[in-house]
Backbone:
């Protein structure tokens, strides 16, 4: 019998069971209420001796999905899984009645059931609910993946995350960790006196980062809008408005390629602090990651690419050009010579070299030749001005800006800088960006007149940082792909390479 035929027969059998249920009345009832969760019961009663538990005469109502079955003549065992764990139930014909037991034996793995009964412990000391009443709440029409293997195909895990969560406990724990990371980030910022805000997701002008936006159309306004690539320009407007410490955790959208590091829809933390510079924010990032690790993991050691990194130890700091010199063994003078840069860029398969500025060439060489080598926490500083249109110039060298990027485990984790608050210079930089865009650079920014006007009212000295939440989760869980930490990552349509 072919696997497909076998699957179809199983589906037909389960549908027949559902039709039988419907013929007898309500097939999907919603009148059952549980009073206990598996982890609560284990926490309260696992330590008791069997006789002590029996004396307590504890009656509970539980509900969950059948994950294991041991069906026997007049008595059977099943394992139920709820949102927090698993617990065993003992189903005996004499307790629930012959007719009910006959119906119970028709239940399948994956069915969702409610059971009322008394707690006891088996001969193997396993906490169990002895049923006195049973209810089939949801009939599962499709069989679950094989219980021991679970979903082993990676793509299937991404496409059918609901099955991945049901059958792979590690996957569920990973997403619980993700939730805890976001909660603790929020707690830390609130403790530090930051105001949490929500800024628009649809922008009339794409801005705040060098990226290609997604375009949509607003019918009522009859105008194109852009899914935001970054909240930066709106958050800095709030700083102009007197919100001196502000943060946002929300989605960004960038119309770029898919990889183990990139998803077109991703979660960002972005925050701004008045009367601070990029050095202050570098120190804050160290403190944030250390606190976060202690709260989420219980220590300062995180897993990355199979290695342990201790966040309590000093972070490295090196300039962009010096990092290329160090990791690619290139003479520093050659990095300031366009011809030499183009030669190096060709070896790294950088695209459209002739269209790139000197600073952009340096950045591309860094990204392709150095970035994945930065395993230890490292701040890269001294970025060229032409790749940092929103950053404040260095006082001692106006060709470079007060900017950092933080790398851990070979991945960019954060990007921060002292904010450019000179409206005249910001206007000029927007004009330069607009020229680059007209020359074919799809990631160049557009001129944002309203933002420049807001700066004319006065943006206090400040610094901001953007932090990739998904990559933080990857660091803390040891995940190798961003798709592992996204519940529903973007994927190519089935059947397409």
Residues:
């Amino acid at each position: 019998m072919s696997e497909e035929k076998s699957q179809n027969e199983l589906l037909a059998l389960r549908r027949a069971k559902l039709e039988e249920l419907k013929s007898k009345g309500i097939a999907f009832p919603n009148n059952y209420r549980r009073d206990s969760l598996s982890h609560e019961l284990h926490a309260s009663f696992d330590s008791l001796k069997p006789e002590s538990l029996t004396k307590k005469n504890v009656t509970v109502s539980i509900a969950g999905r059948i994950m294991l079955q041991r069906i026997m003549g007049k008595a059977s065992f099943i394992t139920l899984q709820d949102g927090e764990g698993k617990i065993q139930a003992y189903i005996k014909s004499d307790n629930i009645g012959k007719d009910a037991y006959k119906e119970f034996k028709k239940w399948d793995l994956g069915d969702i059931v409610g059971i009322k009964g008394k707690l006891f412990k088996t001969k193997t000391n396993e906490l169990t609910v002895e049923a006195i009443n049973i209810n089939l709440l949801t009939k599962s029409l499709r069989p679950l993946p094989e219980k021991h293997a679970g979903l082993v195909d990676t793509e299937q895990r991404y496409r059918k995350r609901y099955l991945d969560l049901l059958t792979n406990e590690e996957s569920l724990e990973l997403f619980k960790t993700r939730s805890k990371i976001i909660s603790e980030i929020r707690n830390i910022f609130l403790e530090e006196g930051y105001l949490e805000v929500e800024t628009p997701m649809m922008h009339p002008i794409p801005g705040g980062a060098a990226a290609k936006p997604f375009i949509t159309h607003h019918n009522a306004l009859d105008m194109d809008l852009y899914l935001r690539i970054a909240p930066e320009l709106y958050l800095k407007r709030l700083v102009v408005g007197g919100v001196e410490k502000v943060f946002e955790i929300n989605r960004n959208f960038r119309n770029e390629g898919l990889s183990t590091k990139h998803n077109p829809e991703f979660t960002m933390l972005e925050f701004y602090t008045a009367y601070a510079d990029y050095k202050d924010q570098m120190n804050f990032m160290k403190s944030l990651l250390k606190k976060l690790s202690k709260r989420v993991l219980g220590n300062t050691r995180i897993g990355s690419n199979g290695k342990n990194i201790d966040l309590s130890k000093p972070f490295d700091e090196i300039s962009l050009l010096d990092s290329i010199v160090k990791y690619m063994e290139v003479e520093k003078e050659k990095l300031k010579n366009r011809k030499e840069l183009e030669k190096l860029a060709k070896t790294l398969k950088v695209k459209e070299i002739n269209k790139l500025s000197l600073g952009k060439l340096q950045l591309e060489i860094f990204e392709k030749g150095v970035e994945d080598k930065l395993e230890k926490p490292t701040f890269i500083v001294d970025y060229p001005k032409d790749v940092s249109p929103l950053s404040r110039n260095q006082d001692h060298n106006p060709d470079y800006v007060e900017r950092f990027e933080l790398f851990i485990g070979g991945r960019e984790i954060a990007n921060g800088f002292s904010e450019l608050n000179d409206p005249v210079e910001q206007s000029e930089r927007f004009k330069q960006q607009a020229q680059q865009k007209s020359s074919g650079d799809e990631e160049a920014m557009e001129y944002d007149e309203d933002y420049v006007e807001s700066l004319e009212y006065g943006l206090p000295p400040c610094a901001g940082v953007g932090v990739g939440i998904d990559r933080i989760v990857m660091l803390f869980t040891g995940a190798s792909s961003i798709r592992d930490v996204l519940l529903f990552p973007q994927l190519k349509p089935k059947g397409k390479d």
The mean pLDDT is 93. Residues 3-144 form a domain with the OB fold (Dihydrolipoamide Acetyltransferase, E2P) fold (CATH 2.40.50.140).
